[in-house]
Structure formats: structure tokens, C-alpha cells
Amino acid sequence: MTTRTEAGPFPSGTARPESKLRSYARLGKLDVYDYYPSVAVALSAVLLPVSGLRPTTIVTLTLFLFGAVCVVVAMVALDDVTGYRDGSDAANYGPDDPLRNKLRKPLVAGTLTLREALGFAWATAAAGAVLWAAAVAIAPHPPTWTVVLVVVLFVVSVQYSYGLKISYHGFQEIFLAGLGAALVMGAYGLAAGHFSGFVLVQGVLFGFGPLLFGVYSNTNDIPGDRAVGRRTVACLVSPKGNALFIGSLCAAEFLTGAVASATGIAPWWFVFLMLPVTALRVRQFLTGFRQGDIMRARKLGFPAHRAGTVLLITANLIVGAGATG
Questions:
Q1: What values do phi and psi take at 141, rounded to 5?
Q2: Count of domains for the chain
Q3: Which sequence ranges are marked TM in the entry (predicted)?
């Protein structure tokens, strides 16, 4: 397999299909914003009573949000760099897969060079580090565990597919869920100044969202990932084993809320509030593994995650309203 070091030029007389700005936005996957509402979940947990909300809390969460955008953008840009170099993106977005839009991978499409992509990735990573450092500095009473979490989160994120290549060595699925949970807990810890078991449960449920469209992508990408040695669960097990794994994740998502409600970590009604997400997961799973439409199942994961996020925010507002009533 041939590795690649630089995006090729456009053929003579061929116009660039889109602007550099649009290509950078594609490289940073700015249209896939599903990690960023983690800050809204954290905010909803400290919002009520509004009279007790400090201006510094809003500033802290704003800085954390912009930092999260920069860090995630850097992470996915570096993922594209690695995918371009090892050829997996060319395989997964090539002519044999007409359902994947090649322009979503600017290096494969040739709309950005490797040098441009690396410069963009490291510039956004640096911006993310500065913004998160500012958020920690401004937070009134940041707990030590939160500061450590934010530092670890930054270091690990840029190693997702670059450097240590966490996603290549069997940890991708854990990372996808852990990133979501850590973003919720990091934002909450800075804003609230203490730990909450209920918010941790929400963080885990939030992390299931990106995980449960990521595993469908992995199912589609098995040939390209296997060719470069990317050890996702989809690559390591049989098709039946992969379906069982994804089904188990759906069950684990439901059980997380159910156990939290049963043990008092969450209100008794929390499990019932989250049932619409479970229904959407059943539909997603059947679409992927009964109807055999993996990419449509992946697409269904986005509204499921976004609905779940709205429900998590709703739960926090209900709890907050009850505490002030």
C-alpha cells in the first residue's frame, strides 16, 4: 500500500471545487457539532436559580466551549492527516463508496495540502490550550480533579489518531464515549466547583451519543481500517459479533439511566424521561443490522444524540426548578 505525503495539485484547467475557508471548515468537521452541547448540559446543571449564577461562571463556560471547539477541530484534523498518510481515507472515501462525499476529506479531495492541514491542526490545538487555561484561571474555585481532567483531556485528544494513535490501538470506542463525558464533567467542575454523581451519569449518556454513530461508521469502514491496522471492534470481530457489540452498547445506554434512577443517583423519573432515546436506538439498530443500511443507521444516530442532549438539559432544569421551588 502506498502512503502519501502531500496532496496532489488539481489537474490543469480544473477549478478548485470550493474555497479554502470551506475546505478548512470541512477539515475541522464544523458541521458535526455534537460534542459542543456538552457545555449546555453543564450550564443547565448550574443555571437555576438564575440569581445565584455568577458572571464569571458564564465567562468560564464560554471560554471552555470555544476551547472545546478548537481542541476537537484539531483532533479531527489530525485524524484526517493520519488517514490521508496511511491511505485509509482514500479507501473509505474512494470511488468504490459512492455514499461518502470525498470533499469531506480535503486532503483526499486535494482541496488542502498536507502542510496546510498540519498548520491548521496545530494552530487550533494551541488556541484550545490557551482558551482552556484561561477558563481554569477565571473559574472561581476549580477543583483539582477538574484541572487534572482538562489537562489530560487536551493531551489525549491530540493523540487520538496522531502521535500515540489511540484510535488505532483498540481504544477508539472508549475514547469516543470518554471524550463526551469528560467535556461535560470538565465544564461542570469549572462552573460548579464540586463533583456530582448525577452529572457524571449525564456525561456518560452524552458520551454514548458520539459513540453510537461512530461505531456505525467503523462498521462501514472495515476494509479501509483493516488495511492500515486500525483496531476497532468492527475490525476485530465477526459481523455477528459487531452487531452484538453495538446492541450491547444500546442496552448499556438504557441501563445507565435505569440504574441511576433505581439507586437514587438520578431522580426516579429520569429513566422514563430518557425512553425516547432508547426508542430511537432500537430504530437505528434495526436500520443498520436488519435492513442492512449501515450509513443510514449512522445518520439516525445524530438526531438520537441531539434528542438525548435536549432531554438531559430538561432533566437538569426540572431538578433546578424543584430545588428553587
A1: -140, 70
A2: 1
A3: 32-52, 58-78, 117-139, 145-162, 174-191, 197-216, 243-262, 268-286, 307-324
- Cα separation, 199 vs 90, whole angstroms: 40
* CB-based contact 213:32 (threshold 8 Å): no
28 three-class SS: coil
Phi, psi of 143, deg, nearest 5:
-65, 150
Nearest residue to 160 (alpha-carbon basis) of 174, 146, 147: 174
pLDDT digits (tens, 9 = 90+) for 82-100: 999 988 888 777 655 554 5
Find the domain containing 193 and state its range. Answer: 31-321
Which candidate, 263, 276, 283, places its Cα nearest to that of 311?
276
Query: Can you tell me the distance from the alpha carbon of 13 to that of 50, in angstroms, rounded to the nearest whole number?
Result: 59
85, with CB counted inside 10 A (0-12, 13-18, 19+), is: middle
| Phi/psi of residue 292, nearest 5 degrees | 75, 20
| Helix, coil or strand: residue 158 | coil
State residue 90's pLDDT score: 80
The predicted-structure confidence for 132-149, as pLDDT tens digits, reads as follows 999 999 998 999 999 999
Closest by CA to 176, choosing from 221, 120, 122, 218, is 218
Mean pLDDT value of segment 117-145? 97
**Cβ–Cβ under 8 Å, residues 141 and 104:** no
Q: Decide if 21 is inside a domain.
A: no
Alpha helices in the chain (DSSP H): 20-27, 38-46, 55-86, 88-92, 106-109, 114-138, 144-157, 172-192, 197-220, 222-227, 233-236, 239-263, 270-273, 275-289, 294-324
Is residue 45 over pLDDT 80? yes
The per-residue pLDDT for 5 is 42
Q: What nine digits make up the cell of 216? A: 456505525
